[in-house]
Amino acid sequence: MAELAETVEELRRDRTHGGSWLARRAVEALLGVLDEPVDSAEELLGRLLEAGRELASARPAQGAVASAVGRLVASGHAASHLPAAELRRLLAEEASALIAGRDRAAASIAVHVAPRLRDATLLTHSFSATVREAVLHGSPARVLCTVSAPFEEGRRLADELRAEGVEAELVEDGRVSEALETASLVLVGADTVYEDGSVTNKTGTRPLADGAQVAGVPLLVACELLKLAPGPPPEVEQEPDLRDLTPPSLVDEIVTEEGPCVPGDVLALIDRTPFLREGRRLLFA
Prior knowledge:
Blueprint: H1 2-13, H2 19-34, H3 41-58, H4 63-78, H5 84-117, E1 121-124, H6 129-137, E2 142-146, H7 153-163, E3 168-171, H8 176-182, E4 185-188, E5 192-194, E6 199-202, H9 205-215, E7 219-222, E8 228-229, E9 243-246, E10 253-256, E11 259-261, H10 266-271, H11 274-283
Parallel strand pairs: 1-2, 1-4, 2-3, 4-7, 5-8, 7-10
Antiparallel strand pairs: 5-6, 6-9, 10-11
Helix pairs in contact: 1-2, 1-3, 2-3, 2-4, 2-5, 3-4, 4-5, 4-11, 5-6, 8-9
C-alpha cells in the first residue's frame, strides 16, 4: 500500500496537471491495489473502497478523480457476487478501459467542437489537454493563449501547438480584454462541471467569461463526462488559489464526448450516466 500513499500525496501536491491526468493516476493506483493478495471478494471490495476514498479526498475539487475511482467502486459493488479472482479481473479490465477512454473522449470532443473552430480566432485559458486535442483536429485561423500565471500553463500550450504547426500567440494576463476584441470564440477546459452547469476551472476563467459576455463572444467548455459532478458547487471554493467558479449564465455550451449541451441540460446528462451518482454515493457514504 506504499504506492497508494505515494499517489495520494502526489495528487495532493500536484499543481500543474489537469483533472484527466489526475484521474488517470488515481486509477493506476487502484490497479496496484487490485494486485494485492486477498482471501475473499469482500476483502477486495473493502480495500478498493478504502483506497478510493483516500484518492478522492486527496483532491476533492477535482471532480474527475472522484468520478473515476467511483466508477470502479460502483462496478465492484454491482459484481460483488463474483469470486475474488473473477472480480479482480473484471475490475482490472474496467480500470484499463477507463485509462484508454481518456484519449477516446478527447478525440470525440474534438469532432463535436470542430465545426465551431473552423476559421475562428480562438481564445483559450490555461492548459487543457482536451482543448489541445480540439485545436489540433480543428482548423482555427488563430489561437490566442493566455499566459495563465503563476504556472504559465498557457505558455506550454502555445509551445505545443506551435510544434504541431498551429499559429498560436501568447496573451499576457493583463491584455485579455484586448484579445476578446479580436476573438470570435472562447474555448476552455474544466476541472469540474456541476449539475447546474456551473464550471470550476483555472483561476482567471470567471473574469474571462465575464469579458466574453460583454464582448458578445461565445464561451464553450470542453470536458469529459468524468468531470460532471452530481450536486451543486460548494459554497466556498476549496482551492481558491488554483481555480474559480463560472456560473452557467456565462456559458454557452458544454461539450462532452456525447456532444454539446446547454448548461441547463447537464443534470439530465448526469442522470443518463448512472455511475456518476452511484460511485459518489459509495465513496462518500
